[in-house]
Amino acid sequence: MAKTKSVYICQNCGVDSPKWIGKCPSCGEWNSYVEEIISKDTSPKIHIAGIQLVKQKPILISDVITTEETRIDTSCNELNRVLGGGLVPGSLVLIGGEPGIGKSTLVLQVVLNMKGKRTLYISGEESVTQLKMRAERLKFQNPDCYIVSETSLEQIFVHVQNIQPDVVIVDSIQTMATDTIESSPGSVSQVRECAAAILKFCKTSAIPVLLIGHINKEGSIAGPKVLEHIVDTVLQFEGDQHYMYRILRSIKNRFGSTSEMGIFEMQQNGLREVSNPSELLLSQNHEGLSGVAIASAIEGIRPFLIEVQGLVSSAAYGTPQRSSTGFDLRRLNMLLAVLEKRAGFKIAQKDVFLNIAGGIKVNDPAIDLAVISAILSSNVDIAIAKHVCVAGEVGLSGEIRPINRIEQRILEAEKLGFEKMIIPDFNLKSLNLSKLNIQLVQVKKVEEAFRVLFK
Ligand code: TYD
Ligand code: MG
Questions:
Q1: pLDDT one-digit tens code per residue, 142-168
Q2: How far is the CA of 240 from the centre of ligand 2 (A)?
Q3: How far apart are CA 170 and CA 151, in angstroms?
Q4: Which residue's alpha carbon is at the smallest distance from atom 9 of ligand 1?
Q5: Which of 2, 115, 240, 337 has the maximum number of C-beta atoms within 10 A of its C-beta?
Q6: What is the DSSP string of 161-178?
Q7: The 3-state secondary structure of 257-295, one letter per residue
Q8: Highest mean pLDDT (candidates 197-211, 232-246, 300-314)
């Protein structure tokens, strides 16, 4: 017998409570509890795991037979790499991102190009004609792609049964709803229930599902954190809407590394894969301009060269401004303090602006040295010579700390025609320099780097 009952659920973390609470005791969020009606099946259940109920029995790990893991080629090299070599059959992949960033475009483009695979695109946000209009802007290669506009979870499974696709797309999880729960689509209980049902479907049918999820204003995947625990892989699609670059990052991956990153460029007719990011990010000619430094950075496992721009000017108001795009502001403040205190540069009374070109966010600490170089270059108004790049982490006492995977960074710089590279002193010990054409300059302290760059 089904009985309806209402509970209060935290829309941030998914914890429930029989009564309303102002501050969630689990995640600390204020005002996040919303009443949701759930129907509870009160028919008696057997709680004791009797022997007759056990369908699976434990076996020795050495006795498990494994076959060569097959991956489905998604026809998109960047997506394949982020997934760890392709789509794993029976996996549930969540693609999260802000509205308008291009999630629907990405997945539609992928399914339209998956040759030889039958795909089913279920959209709860767009009508079939709107989908067709979008598809017409993109390149068409796979005629075996079915589309349907549907928001009922039960109906989705009927469609899948009828079509028998190889890959299913659900756009988006926040618009789907199941009849078994009475709360509105997008609420925590609906999202959780739908995701759990889709996961069960994936595991039993071995059909992979790409699930699209929206990101809320705090930057996490909207609704529950629980969603991230349910799925096998969480990919985040990010970028600045005003720039054309989009980055696909892996946040969680049960079948591959999470340090992978794919770069796309949004164009008139869809997303273009960027297989060599350095050339794109360095295309401008900045010879003779002060305040520009090139860093050899690594995001994911790929090295690329990136342009860091700094501007230092006298503060127009009493309090100097510090602003940074694409780089952590607190870290910028820390680097400025190091320059002031350890290296004796007088910038406390100056405005400092920092920008990473291309609208890309970089977390690699090895770009510290480029940040400092760009700021100093602007401060003394001397341009850094062309074909010089830098890589190094800056410590609190102004020392240049060693960085990881230095060989990859050097090879990338060399490949792009750089002639000189400034690297941390400690890193040089482990290097095999025999076949390098690039000149390496090792530095121990910020002042040394300054001397090399502006002598
Ligand atoms: P969309 O995939 O609808 O975003 P999401 O599903 O993440 O909400 O992307 C919409 C944006 O992409 C829109 O601002 C227009 C742009 N766009 C292009 O620039 N070129 C294209 O070919 C397409 C289809 C979209
Ligand atoms: Mg969309």
A1: 778 999 999 999 999 999 999 999 999
A2: 16
A3: 9
A4: 102
A5: 240
A6: HHH--SEEEEE-GGG-B-
A7: CCCCEEEEEEECCEEEECCCHHHHHCCCCCCCCCCEEEE
A8: 197-211
DSSP 128-155: HHHHHHHHHHSPP--S-EEEEE--BHHH
How far does residue 30's CA lie from ligand 2's centre (Å)? 29
**Mean pLDDT calculated for residue range 33-44:** 65
- Nearest ligand 1 atom to alpha carbon 171: 6
Degrees, nearest 5: CA angle 403-407-301: 75
Q: pLDDT band at 115, cuts 50/70/90?
A: confident
80 alpha carbon – ligand 1 mean position (Å): 21
Cis-peptide, bond into residue 172, ω within 30° of zero: yes
Q: Tens of pLDDT along 355-407?
A: 998 777 888 899 999 999 999 999 999 999 888 999 999 999 999 999 988 88
Which has the closest alpha carbon to 34: 49, 46, 51, 16? 16
At residue 221, does pLDDT exceed 70? Answer: no
Pocket test for ligand 1, best of 105, 130, 140, 265 (most atoms within 8 A of CB): 105
Mean pLDDT of 199-214: 91
Rounded to 10 deg, the angle between the 128-137 and 103-113 helix axes is 70
Closest CA to 272 of 106, 108, 134: 106
In whole angstroms, give the CA distance from residue 263 to residue 281.
11
Tokens of 251: 């946040």
Residues whose CB falls within 8 Å of the CB of residue 6, separated by 6 or more in sequence, listed in order: 35, 36, 37, 38
